[in-house]
């Protein structure tokens, strides 16, 4: 089996696989060299390279105000895939239990990197409904670059949120602004520390792993979202 076919099986598109192999062949190269080896226009190459960066297949450095790209170490790619597998494995028991009730399989979508997480946050806003959130505010601000923008857009859309979070100086400051920022915040015991950002909105549940290599998942299913909503309300009522 060819390397190209293997990359497609790992979830890359044909264009992404082509550009990734061009980067491997070129070594540390600028965008023009990569486009030349991949035999595609430079303008098309840029977007594909950015997608590969978001998926942790490619990295870059800047030298004399110019970007140079190189392939990530295989071990890092493997870790990213393992993290994605672990995330799916964590929710699998609930998916199997709920889907067996009605025979309808839930829709599941995976997202990689900051660009992927931004798509998740955009979808939450696009739902145009109040929602529930469980996360470490400190980690979300630190790791998700678009998190503050997400909060501002939520407020502009007049979307209310119930937030369960860890107690910290930052989360305490947020709570003080709950009324003006359309939020209701409650704290969980200090012994609990959330390692993912979790959102329940409409018939969907979004889970974003708060690690350096960002990845997320959206599960679209009425029963699953309702179950997560019950979990949330059970914790909420105890605080």
TrEMBL record:
Domain Transcription regulator TrmB N-terminal: 9-70
Lineage: Bacteria, Candidatus Azamiibacteriota
Spans traversing the lipid bilayer: none
PANTHER family: HTH-TYPE TRANSCRIPTIONAL REGULATOR TRMBL2 (PTHR34293:SF1)
Pfam assignment, any one: TrmB
Name assigned to this protein: Transcriptional regulator, TrmB
InterPro entries per record: TrmB-like, Tscrpt_reg_TrmB_N, WH-like_DNA-bd_sf, WH_DNA-bd_sf
Domain of life: Bacteria
């Amino acid at each position: 089996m060819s390397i190209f076919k293997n990359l497609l099986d790992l979830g890359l598109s044909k264009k992404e696989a082509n550009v990734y192999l061009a980067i491997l062949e070129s070594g540390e190269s600028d965008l023009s060299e990569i486009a030349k080896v991949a035999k595609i226009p430079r303008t098309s190459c840029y977007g594909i390279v950015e997608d590969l960066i978001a998926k942790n297949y490619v990295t870059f450095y800047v030298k004399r105000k110019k970007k140079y790209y190189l392939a990530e170490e295989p071990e890092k790619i493997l870790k990213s895939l393992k993290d994605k597998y672990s995330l799916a494995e964590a929710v699998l028991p609930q998916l199997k239990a709920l889907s067996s009730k009605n025979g309808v399989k839930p829709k599941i979508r995976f997202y990689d990197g900051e660009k992927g997480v931004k798509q998740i946050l955009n979808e939450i806003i696009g739902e145009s409904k109040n929602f529930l959130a469980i996360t470490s505010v400190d980690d979300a601000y630190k790791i998700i670059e678009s998190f503050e923008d997400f909060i501002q857009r939520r407020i502009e859309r007049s979307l209310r949120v119930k937030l369960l979070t860890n107690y910290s100086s930052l989360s305490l400051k947020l709570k003080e602004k709950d009324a003006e920022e359309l939020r209701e915040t409650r704290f969980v015991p200090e012994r609990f520390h959330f390692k993912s950002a979790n959102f329940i909105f409409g018939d969907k549940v979004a889970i974003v792993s708060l690690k350096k290599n960002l990845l997320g998942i959206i599960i679209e299913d009425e029963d699953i979202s309702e179950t997560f909503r019950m979990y949330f309300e059970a914790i909420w009522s105890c605080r």
